[in-house]
Amino acid sequence: MATFLVLIPPGALSGDEKARFVRDRFSWVAFFLPFLWLAWHRAWLAAALAFAVQMLGSAISDHPVFGLAGLGVCLATGLLVALEGPSMVVAGLERKGWTIDAVISAEDRATAEDIYDMETPAGETKARDGVSLPASGTATRPHAPMLGLVGFKEGR
C-alpha cells in the first residue's frame, strides 16, 4: 500500500477537480538523477542545490585521496532526495497556499482518486478542518521532529 497526500489549491473546497495527488514513497529516478527529478517537480531551489552538491561530490571523487568521500556525497544527495523528495514537493506547494486535504492509503493513484471522490460526494462539497500530520505545524508539540530527528526543545 502506498500513501497519497491530496493537496487542493488556495481557496478551493474539498473534492476540487484540481486536487493534486503526491505519492509519498522512495523514488529510484530521484535516487539516480536527483536534480532532474526536483526540476521536473518544479522544486527549482532544491534542484539547484542538489546539482551543486553533486558537482562538488563529482569534483571531490576525482581526487586520489578523497575519491570515496566524493562518491559518498553523491550517493547521500541521491538518497536524501529519493526519500524526502515528495515532502519537498508538498512543502513547496504549501508555501504557495495549497493545503493538505486528505491522506489516503491505496494500491495505486486511480484507487486513491476513487477513494477521495467517495469521501466527498458531488453536491456536498465543504471545507475540511484540515489534516493533522505528525510533523506538521498543527501538531500538539511545539517543535515537531524533522527528517526523523528528535526535537530537542521539547524537554525530556
UniProtKB/TrEMBL annotation:
Keywords: Membrane, Transmembrane, Transmembrane helix. This is DUF2628 domain-containing protein. The chain crosses the membrane at residues 30-53, 65-83. Pfam families: DUF2628. It comes from the Bacteria. It comes from Shinella sumterensis.
